[in-house]
Amino acid sequence: MKEIIVIILCVILFVVIVLAILFHESLRNLKKIMKQAADAREARRMAEEDAYFRRTSTKYYHEDDTPKFSDDYFKSTADEQPRQQTTSQQPDTGAGRKTQTDGGVTVTDHRKKTPADRKIFDDGEGEYVDFVEVSG
């Protein structure tokens, strides 16, 4: 009787071990399949993005309604005579505030002092702080 119980327990243990191995292999195969599916989705997405980029980046080379430029349109203007600079409608009387950018461009403000210096926030909208730009 003891021998039969030992044999039954050994068979049950063997079946459990075989089932555990099969379960482990099934999970491993399932993970592989899921990873391949994710890689395929990513490859498809990248291919769609590449196709969209190619389609949109070359569309002006294939359409007939694109702007037409003459052959010398993009040539350097270094040999040409300097063009006169367009002036504003208000004559430069020397009055007004002038600001010079880092690139050397001078900007002149011809507005009257009161509209130019008015505050843009109402007093009831909180604290107003005068802004002073500091070069750094």
What does this protein structure show overall?
- The protein has helices at 2-57, 59-62, 113-117, and strands at 97-100, 106-109.
- It is mostly helical and 136 residues long.
- A hairpin with a 5-residue loop joins strand 1 and strand 2.
- The longest helix has 56 residues, at 2-57.
- The protein starts with a helix and ends in a 19-residue tail after the last helix.
Overall pLDDT, averaged? 76
What structural category characterises the helix and strand content?
mainly alpha
Q: Spatial order of the strands in the main sheet?
A: 1-2
Shape: elongated
Helix and strand run: HHEEH
User: Distance between the terminal alpha carbons, to the nearest Å?
Assistant: 96 Å
- Gyration radius, in Å: 39 Å
Number of beta strands: 2
Uncertain runs with pLDDT below 50, 5 residues or more? 83-88
User: Number of helix segments?
Assistant: 3
Strand content: 5-15%
Largest sheet: 2 strands, antiparallel
Helical fraction: 40-55%
Question: What labels would you give this structure?
Answer:
mainly alpha, 136 residues, single chain, two-stranded antiparallel ribbon
List the SSEs and their pairings.
Layout: H1 2-57, H2 59-62, E1 97-100, E2 106-109, H3 113-117
Quick summary of this structure?
By secondary structure, the chain is mainly α. Helix content is 48%, strand content 6%. It has helices at 2-57, 59-62, 113-117, and strands spanning 97-100, 106-109.
